[in-house]
């Protein structure tokens, strides 16, 4: 049975299906249905990967899913599902408030599945060139989502996003071309295959200087899309100006999909050059992102920008974990990707509810005492914030500890200490800022929200999944994660 | 393939690549938007010619497709689209770039030098022409500079497109036949869609801000 093609087709069909639809509720339902389907297909893929050869290929190896791809497919499905569950009510309220036009809402429900389909193609394509244009497609579909509200600031954010993103992707294309050139045999005229699996099998024969140059270009290029500092400047703008369901997808998976593309090149470079070169660069950029994010979190005044900087910090940590390159830290980073993908959308959904109630994201204006206005939202947000700052009993505590522990065990005590300090800064920042607006006695008189339960199903679902997977990691998932860690660590060259 | 013929192809490609570089430098000093669009079309025409020469001398049919797409897309369609946009919003000149034209020219001379230095270790890997990789990297660097130096949204789009031309030149120079057709097609359509998306945004920015000056987009900070 075909699996990979349907995963790509389902969201594309949903996008087409939303074109003639009129009611936002129907469009949201179509979206939920599509992502439910991809999630089910992803789980089936997970099951198939348990058996050797642990790789699924289709269309003569044009599509290829190994353990790492499957993990990404699951993350994309879950976050997209959560977003579309939340989006239905969110846009009904926006429409009622007159913030958006019905045409824009349709734009959202058509572009979101396309955005997701692009991400699925990134992780399922075997061809590095196809991976590039899929990533460009995600950037182009999401930029219109960022500009959805058509405010001055959202247009500014979208412009910054598309210009920096396109520049980054142009650099990544340079890197991709160089990688291809490195694979060409100077003596023969035959064209090599551009498939990742093929390149990996001949990694030893690639021109090392070319691969080095290629990795630098790809790092800066895909690094821009992944939001690594100092190329991150588009990130807080885009995340804060986009509609909340889009912010959740951008932060929850889009950053990680770009990181996935970077990882593929990291694996190739490591196989070609030995471990030192690309891993050190990942480490430096990861640490840089973490250290830069922490102070911005501490002084932030805008709620969604706060969350965006927290994403920057988490993506930095994930990068550090891969950069440390010991089996333990890679495993920790992969887990961290998953837990973060379940946590951050909840925070953005809650921020969306607060935005719709208070009509501002400035924390000063939101003021204390949100718990009285939106009790259910605030409880979810509080729990997610506790999780995101890395407190037990949530999984992020475990994955952060794993990375730190692995770092110390591998003798990188300086790096680990810096990570610890940055985490501490972010921890204080987020809890301090959020307690100020969530708890306490309201100072601003507001009419209480008519529908305090809006968005709670989506938030509850993701939080529930987070709690479940924090204490119990199913054996198939554990197996796939271990294999993925092996692939990144260069143990199991396919 | 006999030697003189391939020598001729190589010379032609070197000449055209140098032409692309000269046009890029002209764009750096040229402030009129419509002229810039024409210069971009000319640069793309040279890229298409390079692809056609390769296709002809190496009997590679799929490279004709690349040449044709470049011709239709970058020489005719995109310039037409951008032209229409410039006329519709009636802003024809780049006003007050951050760096004046003589300083820009000097800087871009430096970029050219840098591009050639970066490309130097790889000249032995070039399969076609001399120093085409150096030109490609220079196009990238000057394209970046153009983007930061210009304030009009359409100029930034043009700068992005010249960077794209640089990538295509690198692909041709390093790999003879360019990349696999599916990748080339994907890149082509992405570029087309990108320009349309950018155009849409420019239009919306123009509507909201009554200006196409991106330096006015400066509310989001910190």
Largest sheet of chain A: 2 strands, antiparallel
First CA to last CA of chain A: what distance?
23 Å
Encode the helix/strand succession of chain A as letters.
HHEEHHHHHHHHHHHHHHHHHH
Which sheet architecture does the biggest sheet of chain B show? none
- The total of beta strands of chain B comes to 0
Instruction: Please count the helical segments of chain A.
Output: 20
The number of distinct β-strands of chain A equals 2
Structurally, the number of domains of chain A stands at 1
Quick overview of this protein structure:
Chain A is an all-alpha fold and 494 residues long.
Protein described:
- The complex is a heterodimer of chains A (494) and B (222).
- With 494 residues, chain A is an all-alpha fold.
- Chain A has one domain (4-489).
- Chain A has 20 helices and two strands.
- Chain A has helices spanning 4-18, 24-48, 67-97, 102-124, 128-146, 152-183, 196-201, 208-226, 234-241, 244-273, 276-299, 303-324, 327-358, 363-366, 370-373, 375-388, 395-409, 413-438, 456-471, 475-489; strands spanning 56-58, 63-65.
- Chain A has a two-stranded antiparallel sheet.
- In chain A, strand 1 (56-58) and strand 2 (63-65) form a beta hairpin.
- In chain A, helix 10 (244-273) runs antiparallel to helix 11 (276-299), helix 10 (244-273) packs parallel to helix 12 and helix 12 packs antiparallel against helix 18 (413-438).
- Chain A is globular.
- Chain A starts with a helix and ends in a 5-residue tail after the last helix.
- With 222 residues, chain B is mostly helical.
- Chain B has one domain (3-212).
- Chain B is 77% helix and 0% strand.
- Chain B is built from seven helices and no strands.
- Chain B has helices spanning 3-29, 33-58, 61-89, 101-119, 132-149, 153-175, 181-209.
- In chain B, helix 1 packs antiparallel against helix 2, helix 1 (3-29) packs parallel to helix 5 and helix 2 runs antiparallel to helix 3.
- Chain B is globular.
- The N and C termini of chain B lie far apart (60 Å).
- The chains are: A mainly alpha (494), B mainly alpha (222).
- At the A-B interface, helix 5, helix 6, helix 8 and helix 9 of A face helix 5, helix 6 and helix 7 of B.
